[in-house]
Design a protein that fits this description.
27% of the residues lie in helices and 29% in strands. By secondary structure, it is an alpha/beta fold. It has a single domain, classed as Class I glutamine amidotransferase (GATase) domain (Rossmann fold, 3-Layer(aba) Sandwich). It is globular, with a radius of gyration of 16 Å. Its EC number is 4.3.2.10, 3.5.1.2.
């Protein structure tokens, strides 16, 4: 079972429906025990960084997510990607999981915020999560904070996009994959990413 973590922030049903459509068992869970039992974990999310951290901790899910990050196939989506980093200037007093170095910053005032809609993502390395995709594809974004594309982030950067400046749209490190865009809202290309994650979780035997 793929666990989609419910901490009160995010359109979880669309993520679950996408996995179900692809033939993978995925459940929306809000209990530590179910995260621990899952074969793979998805951390979605939209909204305020600090509120997300507070919700995860108040529901007793922080350690279970931290353990999953260390040992299971893990997928972060939108705010769920940001939470894997050190923090965000949106809520500087709330540290993230710090699986990746870096802090998210607000887009400058000379562009429309949030960055919303379809934008291209250029994949800068091969990855099993991007199998079947071209080197550049379009995906659907909704976010106001971003991670600049800095040289020191190159080891884990997987995909780059551009909105006012280059920013990191996808990352990976060992068992962890995360996207600033919403695969579940990105048509066939987004479904391909979720299918690839399902195959990483279950191997090539579709995970039922």
């Amino acid at each position: 079972m793929i666990a989609i973590v419910d901490y009160g922030m995010g359109n979880l049903m669309s993520v679950q429906k996408a996995f179900t459509h692809l033939g993978f068992e995925a459940r929306i869970v809000s209990e530590e025990s179910k995260i621990k039992k899952a074969k793979g974990v998805v951390l979605p999310g939209v909204g305020n960084f600090g509120q997300a951290v507070a919700n995860i901790k108040s529901r007793g899910l922080w350690q279970a997510i931290k353990d999953a990050l260390a040992e299971k196939p893990f997928l972060g989506i939108c705010l769920g990607m940001q939470l894997l980093f050190e923090g965000s200037e949106e809520s500087p007093e709330f540290p993230g999981f710090s699986k990746f170095p870096g802090r998210f910053i607000l887009f400058k005032s000379d562009v429309k915020v949030p960055h919303m809609g379809w934008n291209s993502v250029r994949f800068i390395k091969n990855s099993p999560i991007a199998n079947g995709l071209d080197g550049e594809e379009f995906f659907y974004f909704v976010h106001s904070y971003y991670l600049p594309f800095l040289r020191e982030y190159t080891p884990f950067a997987l995909g780059i996009s551009n909105y006012q400046e280059k920013f990191i749209a996808a990352v990976e490190s060992e068992n962890i994959f995360a996207f600033q865009f919403h695969p579940e809202k990105s048509g066939k290309k987004g479904l391909k990413i979720l299918e690839n994650f399902g195959r990483i979780v279950y191997g090539n035997n579709c995970g039922h």
